[in-house]
């Protein structure tokens, strides 16, 4: 006689470091430390409760989709805490082989301006995201932020904004390339 299969609920506790305020309203989780804040919309399958100095992640069911979402949200919450504690840094390198390009940060409009890329007469303007700091030092661009998604999005948009099109990439190796991101170094 076969019995019913008992499903275990998914459950995990994440410790909230001292100094970080966590609030949950309208299915949006907000974390704040000083003047830095990060927020994330939660999925309907994953439940988050804030008790004392812990965030409790749980799910009522244990299907494949819930396990995937559970792991994803656990990583998101850990990244939110790490971003408020330490921050995230991306480094990009400016490579110009054929034409000397000039890169500048227009703080008023929050855009990155690339002049003389491959000898182009029109400047390439790359829009940036609020909440991310950019520092340009000779051939290195350093991007700092407390939200890993925003800092990664800015680094990727800068790299894509200087992509060489319709030319042989073996010859035209100009551009701005990511050389370091959280947890990885490419050089």
Short description, anyone?
The chain is α+β, with helices and mostly antiparallel strands and 187 residues long. The chain has helices at 64-85, 148-161; strands at residues 10-15, 21-25, 28-33, 36-41, 47-51, 54-59, 88-95, 102-106, 111-115, 124-127, 132-137, 140-145, 175-181, 184-185. The protein is built from 2 helices and 14 strands, in the order ββββββαββββββαββ.
List the helices and strands and how they pair.
Layout: E1 10-15, E2 21-25, E3 28-33, E4 36-41, E5 47-51, E6 54-59, H1 64-85, E7 88-95, E8 102-106, E9 111-115, E10 124-127, E11 132-137, E12 140-145, H2 148-161, E13 175-181, E14 184-185
Antiparallel strand pairs: 1-6, 2-3, 3-4, 5-6, 7-12, 7-13, 8-9, 9-10, 11-12, 13-14
Q: Care to describe what's here?
A:
- This protein has 2 helices and 14 strands, in the order E-E-E-E-E-E-H-E-E-E-E-E-E-H-E-E.
- The protein is of the alpha+beta class and 187 residues long.
- The strands form 4 sheets. It has a 5-stranded antiparallel β-sheet, with helices on one face.
- 21% of the residues are buried.
- The mean pLDDT is 86.
- Tell me roughly what share of residues is in helical segments: 10-25%
- Overall radius of gyration: 22 Å
Number of beta-strand segments: 14
CATH superfamily of the largest domain: Ribosomal protein L6
Shape summary: elongated
Q: What is the domain tally?
A: 2
What keyword list fits this structure?
Outer Surface Protein A, domain 3; 3-stranded antiparallel β-sheet; 5-stranded antiparallel β-sheet; 14 strands; 41% strand; 187 residues; 2 helices; alpha+beta
